[in-house]
Design a protein that fits this description.
The strands form 2 sheets. This protein has a 7-stranded antiparallel sheet with strand order 2-5-12-7-8-10-11, covered by helices on one side. It has a domain of 183 residues: Sandwich (Jelly Rolls). The chain is built from 4 helices and 13 strands. The protein is 14% helix and 28% strand. As part of the MCIA complex, involved in the assembly of the mitochondrial complex I.
Length: 299
């Protein structure tokens, strides 16, 4: 029997979507927002601006072309060096890797912060550099008051996620984490539970709503905590529902990573992140933590 949670009405999903658990709904909103860019808040008029009416700056266009040729050059050089720009022997022997750290405003620009304010809610979320510019501090206020628009039924979430990686001339890129088996973070929270979501590139269009999720529980207090989550623990969901047919995370097609708060507890929150990295734990041999059902089993 399918497990189901009660979550927020996703911003970019159909208006007829059932209300599920508030921790999982925002994850869908974060990771597939670009796929549902036609969404319009209730009561707002559509944008009927003709496509030929746009601002064009020749100087900026030249700068963009230079930037993309620079990216293309780097991609070609990295390809000849080895996997992801590492020498082949270095890649095979690599035990840890820091993917995101927060030491400047440029590091924060790789992330997108969102909240239920996008659907008329009253939650607020902000991202800034922490003390001594050595961490990222996600903070704000959670408010579960439902917008009075006659359509939204649940509210109260805040989240941050990475931007979709892009290559030269806007081509799709992915993170290849197949050489690792665990996600490793150093964080400091306020005791609230968070949801970590990983979005992978789907092979088929009907998989565009698939997400891999797992929970992260913070202790609160002034002390840092290091969290190791094996990739085998992430479970598959689609449009907010945990799937009967579970499959391991596709580690060679990682698109985005996100953190979402939606515990229905009104009030201030904060999450401080030192770094987000990868770990190859040779002591962890589990391939997948969940039961996989066989379709049409032979009698």
């Amino acid at each position: 029997m399918a497990l189901s949670f009660k979550l927020l009405d996703s911003v970019f999903l159909s208006r007829r979507q059932n209300a599920l658990h508030p921790l999982l709904g925002p994850l869908l909103t974060d990771c597939i927002s670009k796929l549902y860019s036609s969404y319009r808040r209730p009561g707002t008029s559509p944008d009927n601006t003709p496509p030929w009416k746009m601002n064009f700056n020749f100087g900026k266009g030249v700068d963009v072309i230079k930037k993309h040729f620079g990216l293309l050059k780097k991609e070609l050089v990295d390809h000849w060096k080895g996997p992801e720009g590492y020498r082949f022997d270095e890649y095979l022997l690599q035990q840890t890797r820091v993917v995101w750290e927060f030491r400047s405003q440029k590091d924060l620009d790789d992330w997108v912060v969102s909240s239920d304010a996008e659907i008329g809610g009253k939650s607020e979320a902000y991202l800034k550099l922490g003390k001594n510019n050595q961490t990222a501090l996600l903070y704000g206020t959670l408010n579960t008051e439902v917008p009075h628009d006659g359509e939204t039924r649940y509210s109260g979430y805040c989240s941050m996620r990475t931007k979709l990686p892009k290559g030269a001339f806007g081509t799709k890129k992915y993170y290849d984490w197949s050489n690792f088996n665990s996600l490793y973070l150093r964080i400091r929270g306020d005791g609230r539970p968070w949801m970590i979501s990983i979005y992978t590139n789907p092979h088929f269009s009907h998989q565009k709503d698939d997400l891999y999720n797992y929970f992260m529980f913070t202790r609160g207090g002034p002390y840092w905590q290091e969290i190791k989550i094996p990739f085998s623990k992430f479970f598959l969901s689609s449009r907010g529902r945990i799937q009967d047919n579970q499959y391991p995370l596709w580690l060679d097609k990682i698109s985005t990573v996100g953190f979402t708060l939606g515990d229905k507890a009104d009030g201030p929150f904060q999450l401080e992140i030192d770094f987000i990295g990868l770990l190859k734990d040779r002591a962890h041999t589990e391939e997948f933590a969940y039961e996989k059902y066989e379709r049409n089993p032979k009698v």
